[in-house]
Amino acid sequence: MFMAGFLYLMNREYKCYIMRTAITFLQEIKMTKDILRQLPSVDSLLKTEALERLIEKYGREIVVDAVRKVIEELRSAIRKEEKDSPAEDKLSQESILKEIETHLQKAFLPSLVKAVNASGVILHTGLGRAVLSEDAQDAINEVIEGYCTLATDVETGRRGHRDVHLDDLLCEITGAEAATVVNNNAAATMLTLNTLANGKEVIVSRGQLVEIGGAFRMPDVMAASGAILREVGTTNRTHLWDYASVIWEETGAIMRVHHSNYRIVGFSGEPDIEELAQLAKEHNVPLIDDLGSGALVDVRDYGFESEPMVQHSLMAGADVACFSGDKLIGGPQAGIIVGKADLIKRIRKNPLARAFRIGKMTIAGMEATLRLFRLPEKLKEKHPVHKMFALPIEKIESRAKKVMRSLMKQIPEGVEFSVVEGGSQVGSGSVPVQTIPTKLLMVKSKDLSADSLGRLLRYNQTPVFPRVQNDAVLLDVRTIQEEEDKVVLDALLFALKRG
Fold first, then answer.
1. What is the CB neighbour count within 10 angstroms for residue 303?
2. Which helix (H) or strand (E) holds 252?
3. Could you read off the pLDDT of 94-115 as tens digits, one per residue?
C-alpha cells in the first residue's frame, strides 16, 4: 500500500515536471518566432538606398547573395538563443545593412597583402623570402604597364627565346657557358634530372638526401623526374670510392646536394666537388651540383660560415649547377640552371621546360637583381638582403629604443618594454646553424598574454609578424624595413590599448 502511494506521488511529480518543461519550451518557441518576425525581408532590404549603392559597386547577384547569408546567420543566432534574445540593435535595419556592407568588403579584400617581418628571419619563406631591391621593383612595374619584349627579337621582329634576358648576365657572373631559368629550384632539379638521367641511376650520398620545406624530399623529386636513386656511403661519411664502386653503364649522373637546412658535424666527411668532378670526367658521366641557396658572393664577408658558391662549383668542374633565385641572390622566386652549353641546350628542349618556365615579371625582377652583382661592393647599399646582413647592431638598437620611447609615452602602466639581445637568422636553409647578433624590442603586458598580443599584431591592417617566446612578444628590428617602423609603432599602440 505504501509502495503504491509512493509511486503515485512520483508519477504525479514527473507529470508536473514534463508539463512545466513543455510550457517553457513552447514559450521559447513563441519568443523565437516573434524575434524572427522582426527580421526584414531580402526584398525590402534590396530596395534601400544603401543597398542600391552596393549593387552599383558590386553587382546585384553578389549583393543578393550577401544579404541572404547575413539574414541566415542572424536566423541561426536567434534559434540558438535559449532565453535571451539578441540585442535589439543587432536586429535593426541599420545594423543589418552595416553587416551586409562589412560582409562584402571582407569578401573583396585581397588575401595576399603586404606584411611586416619582425621575426628576425631574413629569408622568411612564409613571408615571401627575399625583399626585392628598388631596382627590381622598378623593373617589374615597367613591364606590367603594357606590352614588353618577353619573347620577341627586337632586331628581326620575330619570335625569340625568353632566356636571352638572363643568359648573358648569368654567364658573366657565374662563368657558365649557358643558362636557363625556371619557376623554382625544385623544378630546376627535376628538369635537369629528367633531361640528363631519365631511366638511369643518379648517385647521391646518403647524407645528402635532404627534405626541404613542405615535406618535399630529394628521393621523391628524383623519382618524379624519372631518374633512379642510387644511394652510397652512410649518413655521416661517404668516400670517393663509394661513388666509384657503383658506376656502370646505367649510371646517368653523379649528383651533389647541398645540405640546406642542417649540418652534419663531428665524425663526418664527403668528397669535395673537385674530386667528384674528376671522377665524373673519368667515367664520362655528368656531374650535377644542386646548390640550394645559390651564393654569388662569399657570405663569410658578413661573418657567416661559408656557403657553396656557384662560380666555384663551375670552376671545379660541375657540368650543371642549379640553385634558387629568391634566397641569397635576393630576387623573385625562380630556379636557375647554369653549366655546359650542350647540356643546357638539351634542358631547354625538354617539354617540361615549358611547364616550368617563368613569366615577364619574374624575368624583369631577376634581371635587375642580377645586375646588382656586377658591383658587389655596392650590395650593402642597394641589395635589401645584403643590407640586412651588414646592418650595424648600434643602428638596430637605436631604432628599437626610438620605438620603445614612443610607446612608453602613450601606453599606461601595466606594460613592460625593454630592448634585449638576441639573434637573427638567415633563413630558407642558408647558414642554418648560425645566427647574427641583434637587438629585440621586448613587450610584456599584465592584461594581455603574449599569444593574444601576437595575434592582434598579425590582425593589423598591415600584418606584423613578431616572435612569441617566454610569454613575451619580441620584435627584431633587423628585418623591419626602416620605413615600416611607424607601422610597427601604430600596430603596437592599437593592440596594447585594445588589450
1. 12
2. strand 251-257
3. 888 898 998 898 888 888 999 9
- pLDDT per position as a tens digit, 295-353: 999 988 888 888 889 999 999 999 999 999 999 999 999 999 999 999 999 999 999 99
* Cell (9 digits) for 72: 541566415
Residue indicated by cell numbers 618577353? 150
pTM listed for this prediction: 0.85
CA dihedral 176, 178, 181, 185 (to 10 degrees): -40
- Give CA–CA dist 290/281, Å, rounded: 18
Selection from 184, 435, 200 nearest residue 332 by Cα: 184
Q: What is the pLDDT of residue 6?
A: 44
Residue the block writes with cell 619573347: 151
Domains of the chain, start order: 2-107 (no CATH), 134-382 (3.40.640.10), 390-498 (3.90.1150.110)
| Angle at the Cα of 299 from the Cα atoms of 298 and 301, rounded to 5 degrees | 85
Distances (CA, A) of 20 to 8, 33, 84: 19, 20, 19
* CA separation for the pair 222, 228 (Å, rounded): 7
Contacts of 232 by beta carbon, 8 Å cutoff, 6+ apart: 203, 204, 205, 206, 238, 242, 243, 245, 246
Q: In whole angstroms, what is the distance from residue 298 CA to residue 460 CA?
A: 38
Residue type, 210: V
Q: Long-range contacts made by residues 169-174, C-beta under 8 angstroms, separation at least 24?
A: 169/367, 169/370, 169/371, 170/336, 170/338, 170/370, 171/338, 172/374, 173/296, 173/311, 173/370, 173/373, 173/374, 174/296, 174/310, 174/311, 174/314, 174/321, 174/338
Grid look-up 674530386 returns: 275
∠ CA 56-61-64, nearest 5°, is 90
- C-alpha–C-alpha distance, residues 490 and 472, integer Å: 18
Nine cell digits for residue 209: 638526401
- The alpha carbons of the chain give a radius of gyration, in whole angstroms, of 32
- Cα torsion 22, 24, 27, 31 to 10°: value is -130
Asked if 232 and 203 touch (Cβ cutoff 8 Å), the reply is: yes
Q: How far apart are CA 463 and CA 128, in angstroms?
A: 13
Contacts of 201 (CB under 8 A, 6+ apart): 227, 228, 229, 230, 246, 250, 251, 252
Q: How far apart are CA 429 and CA 435, in angstroms?
A: 12
Sign of CA dihedral 422, 426, 427, 433: negative
Q: Pick from 25, 26, 37: which is nearest to 78 by CA? A: 37
Cell matching residue 256: 651533389
**What is the rounded CA–CA span in Å between residue 221 and residue 236?**
22
The amino acid at 126: G
CA distance 265 to 262: 10
Helix residue spans in 356-474 (DSSP H): 360-372, 379-382, 384-390, 393-410, 450-458
Q: Per residue in 214-271, pLDDT tens?
A: 567 888 888 899 999 999 998 889 999 999 999 999 999 999 998 776 667 767 788 9
